[in-house]
Amino acid sequence: EKSQEITIGDLLKTCLRMRPSRIIVGEVRSGEAAQLLQAVNVGNDGSLSTIHANTCKDMISRLETMVLMGIRLPIPVIRRQIASGFDLFIHLGRMRDKSRKVMEIAEIEGMDGEEILLNSLFERKEESLVKTGVLRHKDKFRKAGISYEDI
């Protein structure tokens, strides 16, 4: 018998049929980003995933590229879906001692024309995480049961 491969994209499609409250995807690497983008835009608040990128800003172009691996959509459409589907980007970096630490936390504010706006909330400065901004969409988090202090 030939085994049939089950992809992350297949699992995401099946998961959406089950009407989940949240979706957690360990890592998105390819075209399954299109299904993830769909999932976070249909009321699955609090969903999360990991992707590899160099900065919070780079996460946008990485997501765009991975979505395009799965489905052909105009870049402005992908960007609008990213801006409406995600609330925060959290960038982890590898330190010299091989540990990983939070390097930046950025809020997705929305769009300005065709550009996704990021509001940097915290950035790593040497050994500590320093507050660099103020969360602007507090109501969105409050509705999800998350206080600003939790972030």
Automatic annotation (TrEMBL):
Domain Bacterial type II secretion system protein E: 2-90
InterPro entries tied to this protein: P-loop_NTPase, T2SS/T4SS_dom, T4SS_GSP_E_ATPase
Matching Pfam families: T2SSE
An example molecular function term from Gene Ontology annotations: ATP hydrolysis activity
UniProt-listed SUPFAM superfamilies: P-loop containing nucleoside triphosphate hydrolases
Family classification: Belongs to the GSP E family.
Designated name of the protein: CpaF/VirB11 family protein
Species assigned in the record: Candidatus Blautia stercoripullorum
